[in-house]
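User: These chains co-purify. Model them together.
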Amino acid sequence: MFTVSRQIDETPSIKTIRFKEGLAATPGQFVMVWVPGVDEFPMSVSYSADGLGITYQVLGDGTKALASKVQGDRIGTRGPYGKGFAIHGKRLLVVAGGAGMAPLAPFVEEAVTHKASVDLVIGARTSSNILFESRGIQAGAKVHISTDDGTKGFKGLAVELAESVLAGGKFDSIYACGPEKMLLGLLRIAESRRLPMQASLERIMKCGIGICDSCAIDGKHVCTDGPVFSERDLRAFGELAKTKLDMCGRKVPV
Amino acid sequence: MAHLSVDLCGLRMKNPTMLASGVLDETGRSMLEVAKAGAGALVTKSIGKEPRPGHGNPSIVELQCGLINAMGLPNPGMEIYTAEVKEAKKGGVPVIGSVFGGTEDEIAELAGLMSRAGADAVELNLSCPHAKGYGAELGSTPELVESICRKAKRLASVPLLAKLTPNTSSISSLAAAAERGGADAVVAINTLKAMAISPEARMPILANKFGGLSGPAIKSIGVRCVYEIFESVKIPIVGVGGISSGRDALEYVMAGATAVQIGTAVWTEGLEVFSKTSREIMQFMEENGYESVKDMVGVAHPGRN
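Assistant: Joint model of the two components:
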């Protein structure tokens, strides 16, 4: 089990929990987080080697229980699992919607370390919800902000801002994590510009190791084939932004 | 020419490997991928009458020697699942529909519904060790196994397989009961009831506390069970438990299994495990002068080799 070192408030609804122990993970990979007696759920890794970090939205019982943990408490982890982001080219556009910035922040840091130039679009509903803007700036990315209500940066959707950033320069590939509507919009743009794209998806996940089929999307599995998929898979996903499986395995709207 | 095809109570399989119930089989699309990877047949998730979310997480514990799971029979319910059976059938290999229920009549009704949904055979889950009121709780006494099989046989228009629990003092009496009830084959074994505890958390890891142990840890128990069953029934046996190679499969076959199921090894080996197992069986047959898998069934018994 991992030992909690501290909790950090990132936005009014998003926290980061850091652990004493580090974990060798590729940006985009996830861990199964066990809060004893409460639940176990998949979470993207937002910090890895220098003390595991998980950045999470406080939503259900599991994340509420996670938020109540303090220094010295123990949390179970399995992983890291799944396929992360791979650097493709030298000029990258990274688009994060809401909490989707959690797995992208370590990717931006890694890409810059590998001498890539990164334009980072962070979209949020309102200015107080913007996640890891300073991390992006510190890493050396050119950061562009969009908010739905115009309280900071471009007023409108992250996809719209991403499109204008793409129009203003040359890019080798697109990286994204966020609402599936946003991912679908970006996929169309990537197709029209013939750019490769990688996006991280989320589904209900029970085993995390490619056995139980609960995270299936069109015959692929978010836990082992993903969570990061390339444009070839994304294009083939008829279920993207349309349906997902519920706890019983019924297809329900995303 | 040596060949891998087997006939399992009328089901024609291109090789003796099939996907075990519960693994990558909640959706038809996933089962198609397993068929594409080389499985000779597919067994579906265990399906009940109503949608069921299963147990909460943690629902799986990873061990060095296998897995303990307590998924708790999650499934979308028979009505919705019919579409998944139809999708899975596009894979071109037999699809065996697994069903579970809380009463004899419910299980029998589901067997009927599953065969009408297009399944090529029905597997009765009489052996899940971690769902209260289902599975092994009904499948542990020969009398109930016999009468469930008899009722299900009446309503199912396709071959009927009874999947048995090893959590009993005599699995061969359960097999004999299934045969008396009219089952066309028995499947052995389901998982063994098990538990894992986290010393740091001072509690069982699984949300359900108990689960079912699968994987290499149970292979030798499965082989022993199939060996015992072979001596007490005439109907074919499907061997399952810890198979991840041709040699594992051959142990089951020589103990008496006509075909084998693979589940947990998908975790360690990926979907390639089906073609790999087939290839290794074939290699053994060529090296040892066997023409057909059926020529090896039960040869480990005295007087049969």
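Residues 153 and 253 of chain A are 31 Å apart (CA to CA).
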